[in-house]
Amino acid sequence: MKEEITAGGKEFVFAMIWAAILYFVCWIVMSLFYSYAFVGGIIAVIIFAVYGFLILTHYTARFSYSLNDGILRVNRTIGKRNKEAEINCAAIEGAYYGYKPMSFPKKCMSMRMSILNKKRSLYIEYRDKAGGLCGIVIEPSEKLRKKIIKQKDKGRNDD
Predict the structure, then answer these.
(1) What is residue 159's predicted lDDT score, i.e. its pLDDT?
(2) Confidence check: pLDDT of 80 > 70
(3) Where are the domains of the chain?
């Protein structure tokens, strides 16, 4: 089973509203403190550069999830940059839907399209090839999520 999702939507609109609010706050600060206008302008440019790079580029991402022969492949593409993860479903320790468990590993990849809304997130704990505990956060469809959990349970019963 394979699915491809393009990020964006409602959260992109909220991100643009936050960008406008940041712009007006910087403009007001520069207006009120005229002697600090140059410093305020530099700070505004830095804020927008960080905001644009970290937040808005995330909304141009394309995510593809595939589940074949007990192997989950997750691919995130932003422009020409690509990040991939391949997980054997038998190596999955736990799958948590909608909440992040307290014991979730620090070494974790975020491969989800939304930044603010975590309701549809699937938190997966798995063992990598070296045996270390890793985590990945994805947002598959409900159908694929159920298949991943079913494959995880199937891999457990085979051991």
Answers:
(1) 46
(2) yes
(3) 7-59, 65-158
